[in-house]
Design brief:
Elements (H helix, E strand, L loop, with lengths): L3 H11 L4 H5 L5 H8 L7 H11 L3 H5 L5 H19 L3 H11 L8 H17 L4 H13 L9 H16 L3 H17 L5 H20 L3 H17 L6 H14 L3 H18 L2 H14 L8
Length: 297
């Protein structure tokens, strides 16, 4: 692959634009500097904005023909995959992967890593084939970008390995990868909203791991961390599932009142988002513990 960062810098200088001026509306000055010096791989969202500002096509950066319309379609498909998985609609996500995206279309490392990650995620959750998922999560991690820098898909793949090993009942390995993903998440910096939202999901998946281990206090703390991330982003991504998980773990800690309140919020959000998975989970807990929302109002 060509030296993308160097090309961006050269073209910016040709347009006689300072870094700070050029970065406005795209990313921070620090992020642009890292991209230009090949210390950070730009997301497709940032890359498209850079090309727009430079008034060039993507193929001008890559030095080979690139179908801009295909890039837009791939970007839209991966956005849809994120939304579907965020609403526990992994079956639909898997169908989209199989019917709408072919590996030959994956013209950038960024797209390749996204594809392998979502393939692994749907394989473990929808198909319940953890070994196949482990293979594709590993492909995500082994597909290096030009700058050899970590991407959000790398952190998600580590988290996905935790899910896959949980399915296999190998809890020590699951714990290792959940903790590793959490450690990397805390160090990962991004200004891309779609990537920031995934940090909430990483904390959520790790919280669920501790909930399954009956370490309810750790699970509550991670749920609150994830909620803080998503609320600050004004995002409903995984929000109903988070409120449900928080309610579940608070109940296990004996806090029935706050547990019920969080179930109430979870059900309302799940209803708005048409998230049947969370609606069913809440109803099951309400029935089991004879919780009535009327008492909360």
């Amino acid at each position: 692959m060509e030296n993308i960062g160097g090309k961006i810098k050269a073209l910016r200088i040709q347009k006689e634009m300072r870094q700070k001026e050029f970065a406005k509306g795209i990313c921070s000055n620090v992020t642009l500097s890292n991209i230009e010096n090949n210390k950070q791989n730009p997301s497709m969202e940032i890359l498209i904005k850079i090309c727009d500002k430079l008034e060039i096509a993507l193929q001008d950066l890559y030095g080979e023909p690139i179908d801009t319309e295909e890039v837009k379609n791939l970007t839209a498909n991966f956005d849809q995959l994120q939304w579907l998985c965020g609403n526990h609609r992994h079956r639909e996500a898997y169908i989209l992967l199989m019917e709408e995206i072919e590996e030959e279309q994956l013209i950038t490392i960024c797209f390749q890593k996204k594809y392998y990650y979502f393939l692994g995620l749907t394989q473990v959750i929808h198909l319940e084939k953890p070994d196949e998922a482990i293979f594709n999560f590993s492909r995500t991690l082994n597909t290096e970008n030009e700058a050899k820098t970590e991407t959000i898909e790398d952190v998600l793949a580590l988290n996905g390995l935790g899910i896959a090993y949980t399915f296999k009942g190998e809890m020590d390995k699951a714990e290792f990868y959940f903790m590793k993903s959490l450690e990397h998440m805390k160090k990962f910096e991004t200004e891309v909203l779609s990537e920031q939202k995934e940090m909430g999901k990483i904390a959520f998946n790790t919280a669920k791991h501790y909930s399954d281990k009956k370490e309810y206090k750790k699970a509550v703390d991670l749920c609150l961390e994830a909620l803080s991330i998503l609320i600050n982003l004004d995002s409903r991504y995984h929000l109903s599932a988070l409120y449900f998980l928080l309610g579940y773990n608070l109940f296990e800690l004996g806090d029935r009142i706050n547990s019920s309140k969080n179930y109430f919020i979870a059900k309302a959000l799940a209803y708005v988002d048409n998230n049947q998975h969370v609606l069913d989970a809440v109803d099951e807990e309400l029935e089991k513990h004879k919780i009535v929302f009327d008492a909360l109002i």
